[in-house]
Design brief:
CATH architecture of the largest domain: Orthogonal Bundle
Mean pLDDT: 82
Shape: elongated
Structural class: mainly alpha
Radius of gyration: 22 Å
Order of helices and strands: HHHHHHHHHHH
CATH topology of the largest domain: Cytochrome Bc1 Complex, Chain D, domain 2
């Protein structure tokens, strides 16, 4: 479903909400190929400059018509003044039907009906914006998350050496070799997945007496350190 922020923006602009935001997972590599159609007007990357259209670095969380030095159309200037910001949902709506979201835009782009192509483009453009793990405004473009772990906790960089020091309690059950005889392996587990799982145990949203007890004794930095250690542990 289209996000509440996009819905509010569309309403503020006096427009009816368009199709639902694409739920497909975007592929930046495919998005780079799709962006070839945009290169005549827009640039991204370290050397990007304004051309026929504005450069698209740092797009996520940016108010429309706000790139310094670019002369926007009156239509885009009005949209920015009314509160249009670029996020995954508003970008999806714009890429599908530009003239519906910004009536009067002088862009020649006619829109992309394929939801997967839009998701790929959004994922590619996100790679030139801040990481959503570090700055919440840079919305993820993949499927919605099913946890409530704060972005600043997910962004913690764990110390694997400290994690190794803490891991002795873990490895009494979870085999460092990666074996999973009756107990799931956590060796080479992605750090974010590890952190989310541990916080779920800590908050008792995942029920397991031993894990609830272990996670309950750990602080955010300690969980991040354990995640870093097991993510890089050789099998």
């Amino acid at each position: 479903m289209i996000g509440l922020r996009a819905l509010a923006t569309l309403t503020a602009l006096g427009l009816a909400p368009g199709a639902a935001f694409a739920s497909e997972t975007g592929d930046p590599a495919r998005g780079a190929q799709a962006f070839s159609k945009c290169k005549g007007c827009h640039q991204v990357g370290p050397e990007a400059t304004n051309r026929i259209g504005p450069q698209l670095n740092g797009l996520f969380g940016r108010r429309a018509a706000s790139v310094e030095g670019f002369r926007y159309s009156k239509a885009f200037t009005r949209a920015g003044e009314k509160g249009l910001e670029w996020h995954a949902d508003t970008l999806d709506a714009f890429l599908e039907e530009p003239k519906q979201l910004v009536p009067g835009t002088r862009m020649s782009y006619r829109g992309e009906a394929d939801a997967q192509v839009r998701a790929d483009l959004i994922a590619y453009l996100r790679s030139f914006s801040a990481s959503p793990q570090n700055i919440p405004e840079a919305d993820p473009t993949a499927r919605g998350i099913d946890h409530d772990v704060a972005p600043d906790i997910l962004a913690l960089v764990g110390d694997p050496e400290y994690g190794e020091y803490l891991a002795s309690e873990c490895t009494t059950c979870h085999q460092a070799s990666g074996g999973d005889e009756g107990i799931p392996s956590i060796t080479l587990w992605p750090e974010e997945d590890f952190v989310i799982a541990m916080h779920a145990y800590k908050a008792k949203k995942r029920e397991h007496p031993v894990m609830n007890m272990v996670a309950g004794r750990l602080g955010d930095e300690e969980i991040a350190a354990l995640a870093a250690y097991f993510a890089t542990l050789e099998e």
